[in-house]
Fold non-specific serine/threonine protein kinase.
Amino acid sequence: MGEAPLLGGRYRLGARIGSGGMADVYRAMDTRLQRVVAAKVFRSGADAAGRERFAEEARTLAGLSHPGLVTVHDFSAGPDELYLIMELVEGRTLADEVQLGPLSPQRVAEIGSRLADVLAHVHDNGIVHRDVKPSNVLIACDDSVYLADFGISRLAAAAARRTSSGVLIGTATYMSPEQVSGGEVGYPADVYALGLVLLESVTGRVEYPGSGAESAVARLVRAPEIPLSLPTGLHRALLLMTGSDPAKRPTAAECADLLAGRSTDVIPRIQAEPPRPATQLLPKPEPRRNLKPWLLSGAGLGVLLVALIVFLALPPAPEPPNLPPVSGPAGVERLPEDLANLEGLIRE
C-alpha cells in the first residue's frame, strides 16, 4: 500500500491529537519545510460565500502575532479541502489539568491574566473568539499559556450565528447569556466565557453542567456561584467578568490588569469637566494697602522727637570769660599795667 495522499499536496497527516464538533486536529509533517505542524481539518464543506469568509478570517488570524497566540501558518478554502495549518504546541490543555483537581487561586489568576491579555490583542484586531473553553487553552511544556482556535467557530460557520443545523455556535457550557438568547455577540462574550473557564479551574467543577440546551438556559435563570473564600482580587474579577449585562463587563485588557493585581476595581469612565479659567479658581484677593510710606514717615517723626528731647535735656553752654582788651605797649613797659588788670580779674 502506498502512503496516504498529502493534504493540500504538502502536509502528511499523522496521529489525531484532538477532535471537536466540526473538525479533527492531526499532528502533521510539512513536507516542504520539514517541520511538524498541527492540521485542523473540517469535516463539512461550505458554500462559495462561506469559503471566501473562511479565507478572509484565516488571513486575518495569520497576520496576528502574540506570545500567547497559536500561529496560523497556512489554510485551504477549496471546495474539497477546508483546513488550517497551525503551530504545534507540545503539552497539555487546561481541561487536562482541571481533571486532576482544582488549581490554586494564584495559578488561576496567573493563567487568566495571560489569556485576557491574548484576548485583548485579538479584540483590538476585530476578532471575537466565541468559543473560549478549557480544551482551547494550551499549556506548553515550558509552562507557556496559549489560546487556540481563534475565530475557528466563526470561520466554520461562515460568519453566521448558527450552523446549517440550527445549533448555536460555541460550547453551551461556556456561552454568554447574549449568545444563548440570540443577541448580538461581541467581545464581552469572550470575557464571560473566560470568567466561567477560570471559575471552573479554581473550583474543579463545571458551573453549568448538563445537556446543551439545559446548560445554555441555566445561566438565564441564575448567576454563577463564585465562592466567597476566594482571594478578594480573584473574586472581584470573576464577579465582574460573569455579569449578565455585557455592557457592564470589563474589557479583556481590564481583566488582565484585575487578575494580575495591577488594578483593584473597574471604575466607570467619566468625562472630565473642562478646566475653569485660572481667574475663577480662587476669589480675587483685595488689594493690599502700601504701608511703606506710612512707616517711613512715622520713623522720621520718631527720630525728630528723640532729637528734640535730647536737645532740651542738654545743659546750657558756659559763657566765655570777659578778658580785658589788649592794650599798651608790648614788652617790659606793659608789665605793670598787665598786673593791675590781673588783680582786677581776681577781685571780681
About this structure: Residues 7-88 form a domain with the Phosphorylase Kinase; domain 1 fold (CATH 3.30.200.20). The chain has twelve helices and eight strands. Residues 292-313 form the longest helix (22 residues).
